[in-house]
């Protein structure tokens, strides 16, 4: 089912969480909330929208991380029902697309529900105080690879890093619904 994300609830405080990656390494959100902010993305492996943007997502997040903006990805889908999203397949998907950010398993789907994530991809851009400042899309290219695309997520996170505030105008991300149990 195709869904759009809600508009940004500016100032909403990010709930802390601790999740593991498929290798069992532990990551705590508050430890990644850096002085230039934090991007939390809800993604999965089987969604055609995530597959279509995976290369651009890898490129954009590498740029953000090089600028000191931290990035975490969370996979909240019920991977018992959707084996393509299993931890083993998460490792393969991340390697295949060159993801350098931590890709975390939301085993009980608690984090996805706490954040109100609705689709994959769903982007949450936070300032250094953990206040939501961006809930938009990756770029204006949609499912296409467009060399002239506007990298809306990168632009928003750079603005948040510089000013603590996100852009007032944001276009909702769209994608497949999260597969809840």
UniProtKB/TrEMBL annotation:
Residues 8-159 form the Thioredoxin domain. Pfam families: AhpC-TSA. It comes from Shewanella inventionis. InterPro entries: AhpC/TSA, PRX-like1, Thioredoxin-like_sf, Thioredoxin_domain. It comes from the Bacteria. CDD domains: PRX_like1. This is Thioredoxin family protein.
């Amino acid at each position: 089912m195709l869904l759009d994300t809600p508009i940004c609830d500016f100032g909403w405080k990010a709930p802390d969480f601790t999740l593991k990656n498929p290798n069992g390494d532990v990551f705590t959100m508050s430890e990644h909330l850096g002085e230039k902010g934090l991007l939390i993305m809800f993604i999965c492996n089987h969604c055609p929208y995530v597959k279509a943007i995976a290369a651009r997502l890898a490129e954009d997040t590498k740029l953000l991380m090089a600028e000191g903006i931290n990035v975490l990805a969370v996979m909240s889908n019920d991977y018992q029902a959707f084996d393509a999203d299993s931890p083993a397949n998460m490792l393969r998907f991340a390697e295949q697309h060159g993801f350098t950010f931590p890709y975390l398993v939301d085993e009980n789907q608690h984090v996805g529900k706490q954040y109100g994530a609705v689709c994959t991809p769903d982007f949450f851009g936070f300032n250094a105080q953990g206040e939501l400042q961006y809930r938009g899309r990756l770029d204006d290219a949609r499912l296409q690879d467009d060399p002239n695309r506007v990298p809306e997520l990168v632009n928003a996170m750079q603005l948040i890093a510089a000013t603590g505030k996100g852009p007032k105008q944001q276009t909702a991300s769209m994608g497949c619904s999260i597969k809840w149990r």
